[in-house]
Specification:
InterPro entries: Cro/C1-type_HTH, Lambda_DNA-bd_dom_sf, Tscrpt_reg_HipB-like. The chain has about 90 residues and is an all-alpha fold. It is built from 5 helices and no strands. The two termini are about 35 Å apart.
């Protein structure tokens, strides 16, 4: 998972939780996840269960939205194509 994304997600979850006056334990209990999981999300740990993350976000009234962008694979292929063209 991209470090920028996990840092952003961590900040958003922490900010929303504190704005709602919830402790990590409160949020964990309400979302049906462990307090450790909430800590991991707020620390930006890159390996987390998606279904648990969705439960935490739902509890906080947050949603995860996906948008289309150029994929890493497409950028890599485009770069390889330019490099091949430069050597011809």
């Amino acid at each position: 998972m991209d470090k920028h994304f996990t840092d952003f997600l961590a900040g958003e979850v922490r900010s929303r939780r504190t704005a709602l006056g919830l402790t990590q334990r409160d949020l964990a209990d309400m979302a049906g996840v462990s307090e450790r999981f909430v800590r991991f999300v707020e620390q930006g740990k890159p390996s987390i269960q998606l279904d648990s993350l969705v439960a935490v976000l739902d509890t906080l009234g947050l949603e995860l939205h996906l948008t289309t962008r150029t994929s890493h694979a497409a950028r890599t292929r485009a770069g390889a194509g330019r490099a091949e063209g430069a050597t011809s």
